[in-house]
Amino acid sequence: MVSSKTARKLEVASPVPADIDIANSVSPLHISDIAADLNLSPHHYDLYGKFKAKVLLPVLDEFQGSPDGYYVVVGGITPTPLGEGKSTTTVGLCQALGAFLDKKVVTCIRQPSQGPTFGIKGGAAGGGYSQVIPMDEFNLHLTGDIHAITAANNLLAAAIDTRMFHEASQSDKALFNRLCPPNKEGKRTFSDIMFRRLKKLGIDKTNPDDLTPEEVKSFARLDIDPDSITWRRVMDVNDRFLRKITVGQGPEEKGMVRETGFDISVASEIMAVLALTTSLADMRERLGKMVIGNSKAGDPVTADDLGLGGALTVLMKDAINPTLMQTLEGTPVLVHAGPFANIAHGNSSVVADKIALKLVGPGGFVVTEAGFGADIGAEKFMNIKCRYSGLTPQCAVIVATVRALKMHGGGPAVVAGRPLDRAYLTENVSLVEAGCVNLARHISNMKAYGVNVVVAINMFSTDTEAELNAVKKAATDAGAFDAVICTHHAHGGKGACRFLVSWLLANNALSLNVTEYCDKVDLGIAVQKACENVTETMRFLYPLDISIKEKIEAIAKSYGAAGVEYSEQAEKQIAMYTSQGFTHLPICMAKTQYSFSHNAAEKGAPSGFILPIRDVRASIGAGFIYPLVGTMSTMPGLPTRPCFFDIDLDTTTGRVIGLS
Amino acid sequence: MVSSKTARKLEVASPVPADIDIANSVSPLHISDIAADLNLSPHHYDLYGKFKAKVLLPVLDEFQGSPDGYYVVVGGITPTPLGEGKSTTTVGLCQALGAFLDKKVVTCIRQPSQGPTFGIKGGAAGGGYSQVIPMDEFNLHLTGDIHAITAANNLLAAAIDTRMFHEASQSDKALFNRLCPPNKEGKRTFSDIMFRRLKKLGIDKTNPDDLTPEEVKSFARLDIDPDSITWRRVMDVNDRFLRKITVGQGPEEKGMVRETGFDISVASEIMAVLALTTSLADMRERLGKMVIGNSKAGDPVTADDLGLGGALTVLMKDAINPTLMQTLEGTPVLVHAGPFANIAHGNSSVVADKIALKLVGPGGFVVTEAGFGADIGAEKFMNIKCRYSGLTPQCAVIVATVRALKMHGGGPAVVAGRPLDRAYLTENVSLVEAGCVNLARHISNMKAYGVNVVVAINMFSTDTEAELNAVKKAATDAGAFDAVICTHHAHGGKGACRFLVSWLLANNALSLNVTEYCDKVDLGIAVQKACENVTETMRFLYPLDISIKEKIEAIAKSYGAAGVEYSEQAEKQIAMYTSQGFTHLPICMAKTQYSFSHNAAEKGAPSGFILPIRDVRASIGAGFIYPLVGTMSTMPGLPTRPCFFDIDLDTTTGRVIGLS
């Protein structure tokens, strides 16, 4: 029944053990077996140990011209703070497609930040019997991409402060002499990267000695306005005390103190660049044109102006290669990039999806997850990621739960760490029906892109048939291609697939008292049909050649807003980006995921509200403008009792314990 | 003539190209070939791409009981700021032993910090035709060990500030309730790591509910004295503006601001732990007992008290495996750890040396480099590293140059970036002879450990025969086993080995106009003889069971000091460490490498001075007390024109350019 070469037996235990214990109970296949199943030869990848490999970018050139497989994006309805099982559904869908329906399939997911692994949230490898393994490697350093981002981000930060320091204490001439020092023969040269700044300044001279004093000044003095600096340092740790700091207080820094702060590494613009780039050459350009702030005259200052675009690319040269891993059932996974889903676009990388689409080929499936609710993650997938990649999805899966729909129908607040209200544990069809307005709007929003929408109803044991039928009906009424019930076993949305359970039953390998099965296979079949029956062509929500405000308003309308209100600061920033020539960029809304509106408490499908834009910022290198709708925290904190209290290494076996 | 299985042809160009260009001109062998030459099977290592592999710690268990090879440490005389070619000599010696004399050999060297690679210094892979390759991988992320250290160090830092924050706002009971929350059945449990704190407090209860209010208080409240915190954050970037900062200025941190700072990552105590640990279990204990500061009552607070010893071990579990690379001539190199040479012990890892000694076996050679002059690096190699490893070296190589000896004889100051004074470019035998006091003291100091001392005279083209003979004579007079002239070609101490040149001549492959050859082969032969003819047994400079002051004074005496003077702060710290029970630790002097004394300007072999101890600190987890003789910078800065201006990626070939 399971025909994939790399499929394997799972030993299922009851009650479902901790994620790390399930992950450790399976011996992963050597990653070269997974690679071979995808027709990858050893020269196509670099091994990182036995269970991880980086697929090398030249694979794309080699497969150029060969046709792509189907492209499926997984989003969700507006979630509760508990999450609705999007990652688990994504992995489970792929296990169904690959291990049961015998399709070529690649799961493309984001690399999680290491911060939450040791903080509150724990790991992000899926859950229960739908996981990416080895889950400890997935949740920890992986192949070092986030560490590379941290290093590159902070080298740029150090260069900014140091450049201001050196400019403050040196004359134009001394500065220039240091930047272009004479060699032994007394001859000066520009380094390659300096020609980028010269070009920007309109100076076409190639001999440093030919520059006029005015040109020397404009070349050598970036004259950064300290108040304009938007580039912050980053760290892949939940360190709340670094949110706002003062630097430069050492005596050698001569009083050049400055207020700044750290974000968590995945919030770095370099992460967004990694996620959106299409090639080494493209990454080089994007990194070089990242804007760190303005000169006192108001001109944007870039990484290339600081002499750093090349060095940053060198630091990121391995990070651009996606990491190949596997699911518990031996289907391939590409893990790559993990940009924030509010101040950035919250999707895994273009490069991984492109490679995956070639590897699965026609009839195969690439399933990629978009962070947050579909109003944010999937919207940005369409309007930012697909715009830069040129790729066209056929199907959007929207993961819904009865629990979240009851909340949208008016149920009491769902709070992490507190017991669920009775409303969520007993049948209440009308509450579900009322909440389906949220699902319906997500469906119609997604359909507007020209894709087929499949609703995956992630079922809990407390859900009743009547409730589930209400969701199915609402989904179909709203124009979904299909709505499929996926039954995970009771406690916590973790569970095994029907095919797996059947197979285990057939093999007398089941020690679990299973009363409900998940229908991930049905989901697989539904997704397959949705992909095969696309009738429309892909459309974007807005064109790029309209104003920044018009773009913001188009997105706001999709939220149900009646209008948009700009703060004075937002107006100022929009005017600045417009004058700097950045109007052509797509928009990345930094908005709460807990409501269509700016107010997390407004559930369901609010409309008629005015969306307030507090500020507007830009990631010029990554390639988007991001309006801030409310305050976004870009550095999480640690609770009184972080996850790390339970995490340890069994020093005899070398195995990680206590990771959740 | 070259019989090693993995030896290869080198194409030598003139003039000697940039290091990265030489490194790029050679196609490295697949690292599995290098591993196979060492009798390593694929299950003994994890590949990290094609040219790096992590040798797994269980190799040590497998080879337990098999005899070790010879153990050679490379140190240097007191250097000029230009460096005397210690790394290049180390790599060259191994190339000679392995590729020419056909001995089993492993070079054990430190992983360099990424900071200087982009700052002033450039890379650290050796130079010219004596390099570790691929040199870009060596100088950049390598296999992520330093990134793991950064992550672990900063998780601990975040935990410190957050714990103080949570303790400040919660009652003993609330704190305890959060640390040991009741489960669904209302039952509380301690996590495993909490039993370490309970044990330390003398509480042998296992049920949280049985604790008295007093016990609850002492368990839950670490009561860290903010002024006592010695744990700083780290970053592997030259970021001088982080030397002194104020954290906690965000509104959510409620005014709990604190002055602190960042060091460069290699200055983290975790790096010293990595370098000194002998096993996973040992590393777990060392990480857990790292002291971050004191409670207000004066008790040391450890990583385990904060609940972090296990999580830190998990972060470091791959970092403990040394990275296998190769020299330009295909001999194996283990790159592992790179602790600071002043506030830490400046030597590569115990684990790498131990593995290497088993892999080369009897008659084979492990050559390991000790940072700084032999008064610091080699002294700490003997008294700290060998003390923890239990390993016994047979031979110490001391690298000397005529240039540095002239400086010690009274020559003008040598300053990096400025032209050398005439004294260094023309014959001056008496200046050399006068300077040999420095060499002589290093020789007699090293001989005191019971090893044979071989002096490697790293010759420049400006050196004359009379000058070189003066050094040879002085070395022999001082008791060196042998003194060998190693001739590198003229400009910059980079060059090719005689054996290489002969071989290239024999193969008509030489396009270089070579007038001088290096005698690294002679050095190889001398080192072999020195190892085969050890007559004494290894001795330490001081026993561990004397007082902290007596140990400091023993080391000071080896510097030529007549006595030691302690500041009030130093006295206070010594009293504290003594009362805390840390007197048994070895001493790691944080002293300038530019003089035997505390004053960098005192060249030669100063004596009769009083060594001032400004402060005394401790790395309890790593396992040493470090007295500060003067001020040590633990965070370098960037110059006006850092190396990064020249560093770029050729996006067509994927090759790094401009790395030096």
Automatic annotation (TrEMBL), chains A, B:
It catalyses: (6S)-5,6,7,8-tetrahydrofolate + formate + ATP = (6R)-10-formyltetrahydrofolate + ADP + phosphate. Keywords: ATP-binding, Ligase, Nucleotide-binding, One-carbon metabolism. SUPFAM superfamilies: P-loop containing nucleoside triphosphate hydrolases. GO terms for biological process: 10-formyltetrahydrofolate biosynthetic process; folic acid metabolic process; methionine metabolic process; purine nucleotide biosynthetic process; tetrahydrofolate interconversion. Pfam families: FTHFS (PF01268). Pathway: One-carbon metabolism; tetrahydrofolate interconversion. InterPro entries: Formate_THF_ligase, Formate_THF_ligase_CS, P-loop_NTPase. GO terms for molecular function: ATP binding; formate-tetrahydrofolate ligase activity; hydrolase activity; oxidoreductase activity. The keyword Amino-acid biosynthesis does not apply. Its EC number is 6.3.4.3. One of its GO terms (cellular component) is cytosol. Belongs to the formate--tetrahydrofolate ligase family. Homodimer. This is Formate--tetrahydrofolate ligase. It comes from Saponaria officinalis (Common soapwort).
